[in-house]
UniProtKB/TrEMBL annotation, chains A, B:
NCBIfam families: plsX. Its EC number is 2.3.1.274. This is Phosphate acyltransferase. Pfam families: FA_synthesis (PF02504). Homodimer. Probably interacts with PlsY.
Length: 354, 354
């Protein structure tokens, strides 16, 4: 049994999308149990329309909901202790739930998650990891916007956490990790990225295989299993890729509607087009994972539909079943422990540069 | 008459692509004249196969060529004063040519251009501006990798220069300018970007219309005419968009070949597909413009074909014909002049933050 706490009021469509999404995920994973937090009159009627889900769920009423445009500070001030978002996170802290899923606003969800769950012992800053569809399958990209800027040590921590997530999600033993940069040569890029590269190369971690620098066009190719960036450039890469995919879909739609022949061709090839749509479907890879906190929180796209929200729950399910937190804690302890013992190359480097 | 100096040895394919590319551009713009710099035995035989181009061209032999994998420092050491790349840039400095076009390696071309042409009086750092295909037409995005990091004043200078280029290239009177950020609210993002936003908002420039922050997905939408970023995130955005386009083209190709019906549909719709290919064709928007130097240098993609190289020459032609340098100098003088007179809001802000 895996229990998911759900902020039923989050997202652009609220419970109308979230409850049916949970029902879909339950069909795939019958061992799931749910705790829904939200406004009773809005959530319960929809829940009652899904008897199987209703049987697998608890409901907790909350008066307050965080709005999609609330600033993080505002959300904390007005929603701490009592909003559906806060309560859903708190259920993970108390152990009632194994994972929290919300389609609410990212800034508020991160602020509340940090406040409620706190960062892990060795971690200064959490990261948001996205699942990125590639020509080879899927990669993990982090940080896509939890915090702006990261020093070399934080980039290394992101690498360790991202690799743990890759082992939990795509089940590779020693995931390849690349640092996002503007060139592949060792002399290129921001100083933090170059130093992180040196640290990773010297660390000889057994839990990841450090590949070197990767560039923006390696993301879609799936050159590595895990791509690490600080939050500003990671977020820009993510949004740029989403925007480019939308742009090309728009070109394709316009081109296919322009002439009779094109429309006929489209009809004949519609199986192929639906495969393509499938490949490009952002709902399939919905679910950003907050890494570095004492608990698992999954952020669903705010504008997604029931299928997309179900995918975010599926990600949470995989993370719990494959023991993401234990993996991260073990890897970080191993890494930071070695550093504390003075065996760790990070010390040499910081002495050199200090 | 507009004279283009050409590094005939640059790019993955050298003169075999560059000379036919120039011939194509000459067909479109008969008033062009060319000076080719390169190895005589490699360039002249190809030039002689294009009689009309040959008549419109001068050739200058150079023993040394910069290699595609030379580091900038290496290229400067070995190629200064004598390589085909240097000589092509120098022709702009001496006034023999109006613009230099090279498909050689970006780092070397920028290093030599800076060394030979120097930056404009008010400019600390040059930028590379890319032409970005959007759903609304074309936008200009800079800096896509000339230098890493930029302070607020440099981002404002990029905005002024990018707007001048937009007026030269897409011929809008008061181009809209956006700063690339991780959110559209004023409180979001890197401090440099936020301060640049404040400066632009207060400056009331008549040569550009400051729109505010834009995100990665605004690039493909064409939300603004000019998108300004520092070189690290700008480069990552550019490469990520290129990679995503390649990835989707690969999905499409695979999907269309999978079944008989899909192949038949593809045949019927091939007009539409060729339109789509056209829209996605990176050769059509080939030509990064170096901004902020005392001369115009255009960087073509190294791997492009003759059509792509011709497009890069076309960009250079437009920049000269529409007086890019005069536009930039006037705008910068206006902006920096106001600042020097103490009327400029930049001073107030730096006092506040200092």
């Amino acid at each position: 049994m895996i229990t998911v706490s759900i902020d039923a009021m989050g997202g652009d469509h609220g419970p109308a999308v979230i409850v049916p999404g949970a029902a879909k995920s339950l069909e795939r994973h019958p061992e799931l149990r749910f705790i829904f937090f939200g406004q009773e009159d809005k959530v319960v009627p929809i829940l009652e329309r899904h008897p199987r889900l209703n049987d697998a769920s608890k409901f907790v009423h909350c008066d307050v909901s965080v709005r999609m445009d609330d600033k993080p500070s505002q959300a904390l001030r007005q929603g701490r202790w009592k909003s559906s978002m806060w309560k859903a996170i708190e259920a993970v802290k108390s152990g009632e739930a194994d994972v929290c899923v919300s389609a609410g606003n990212t800034g508020a969800l991160m602020a509340m998650s940090k406040f409620c769950l706190r960062t892990m012992a060795d971690i200064e800053r959490p990261a948001i990891a996205a699942i990125w569809p590639t020509l080879r399958g899927e990669s993990i990209v982090l940080d896509v916007g939890a915090t702006i800027g990261a020093d070399a040590q934080q980039l290394v921590d992101f690498s360790v956490m991202g690799a743990a997530m890759a082992r939990a999600l795509i089940e590779v033993k020693q995931p390849t990790v690349g640092l996002l940069n503007v060139g592949v040569e060792e002399i290129k890029g921001q100083e933090e990225v170059r130093e992180a590269g040196r640290l990773l190369r010297q660390s000889n971690l057994t839990t990841l295989d450090y590949h070197g620098f990767v560039e923006g066009d390696d993301l879609g190719q799936g050159t590595v299993d895990v791509v690490v960036a600080e939050g500003f450039s990671g977020n820009i890469a993510l949004k740029t890729a989403e925007g480019t995919a939308k742009q090309i879909a728009e070109y394709l739609r316009a081109a296919m509607g322009r002439t009779m022949m094109a429309r006929l061709g489209y009809l004949l090839a519609r199986g192929a087009f639906s495969q393509l749509r499938d490949k490009m479907d952002p709902r399939k890879v919905n679910g950003g994972v907050f890494l570095g906190l004492n608990g698992i929180v999954i952020k669903s796209h705010g504008g997604t539909d029931a299928e997309g929200f179900a995918a975010a729950i599926d990600v949470g399910y995989d993370m719990v079943r494959n023991q993401l937190l234990v993996k991260i804690e073990t890897d970080l302890k191993y890494f930071h422990g070695r550093r504390a013992n003075g065996k760790e190359p990070a010390l040499e480097v910081s002495e050199q540069s200090g």
